[in-house]
From TrEMBL:
Domain of life: Bacteria
This protein's name: Diiron oxygenase
Short name of any one Pfam family annotated for the protein: AurF
Length: 318
């Protein structure tokens, strides 16, 4: 897959009008995961937590040596690891949204929806944390570099970076979860969590996409260049930390060998490209994936492998 030359971005709708519609949608379709998810149901260890072809080691020599039990356990640990990254970035996003709202009029629909999204994200972090425990894992702390860069990013990020960064992480999670919702081979608790997150994140992504396009159009050459570089770094550190290598040890593999195998695995690269394809299209259309920042997108495996078909491992998911 290769990115095409950017074209002019679509014109965003009226800020107050879209926020009003999103507020109405939130009132009609918001969920309390503590109640909506059956946390007391026993875990079905015969099921997967994610489609096997989405697992980082799928198709490798290591995968062939693993037992079916190890593979399914790895699926649970990898979903827990991805959920940990979700918590990490949603915590960053909540802080950025509070800063976004701080200098704006709370009487506007736009700011009221920002507060509504913060409330949604609070519930999502609790939901993900409960799912991690249910899957028999724990929220492994990120490496110090990524952890402290996250702290820096949430402090210095300005308008387009707030919403482009949010859109990236939310779109990647959304693609993986949409695929799981109606898949009978996936563990029911993962499907329930995915269903809630997909419904509520659809509103968040609309809000982020509109605000990114609106803000990006107002930025000058220097600010855009700065944003492209930081956005490339955000995408790199998010995508390359999706799977914490400690999960490999927990299924009896050598951490370094498995990490190296995953990094080189064309199936895993294709999966990341597939999961990021919509946000890559949106940001590339706006001209936000260019220059030095584009190196980090490619390095993270988000722009595809040279010569790989654009539909590699798409699997027919929408």
């Amino acid at each position: 897959m290769t990115t095409t030359a950017p074209t002019s971005a679509p014109t965003p709708t009226d800020r107050e009008d879209i926020a009003k519609r999103l507020l109405r949608s939130s009132a009609k379709a918001s969920f309390d995961p503590v109640i909506e998810v059956d946390w007391d149901a026993p875990l079905d260890r015969d099921k997967w937590a994610i489609r096997p072809e989405r697992i980082s080691l799928y198709g490798t020599e290591l995968w062939e040596r693993m037992t079916e039990e190890q593979r399914k356990e790895l699926s649970r640990l990898e979903v827990a690891s991805i959920a940990t990254i979700g918590i990490w970035f949603e915590t960053i996003l909540m802080q950025m949204l509070v800063r976004h709202a701080y200098d704006r009029d709370p009487a506007t629909n736009h700011v009221q929806y920002a507060y509504t999204e913060i409330a949604d994200e609070c519930r999502h972090t609790v939901m993900f944390a409960k799912m991690i425990g249910k899957l028999g894992s724990e929220a492994h702390r990120l490496d110090p570099v990524a952890h402290n860069l996250g702290r820096l990013f949430k402090t210095i990020a300005h308008g387009p970076l707030i919403f482009a960064g949010a859109l990236f992480v939310e779109e990647v999670l959304d693609q993986i979860q949409r695929e799981a919702i109606n898949d009978e081979q996936i563990e029911p608790v993962v499907r329930s969590v995915s269903r809630i997150h997909v419904v509520e994140e659809a509103r968040h992504m609309r809000y982020a996409r509109e605000e990114f396009q609106r803000d990006w159009a107002q930025r000058g050459v220097v600010q855009r260049a700065y944003s492209r570089l930081l956005l490339g770094l955000v995408s790199y550190y998010s995508a390359t930390r999706l799977i914490n290598p400690v999960v490999y040890e927990k299924v009896g593999l050598d951490r370094r060998e498995a990490k190296r195998a995953a990094r080189r695995n064309p199936n895993w690269i294709d999966t990341k490209t597939w999961a990021a394809r919509k946000v890559v299209a949106t940001l590339n259309q706006a001209g936000a994936i260019r220059g030095p920042g584009k190196f980090f997108w490619r390095r993270a495996g988000l722009l595809g492998r040279p010569g790989a078909p654009a539909t590699a491992l798409g699997g027919g998911a929408k």
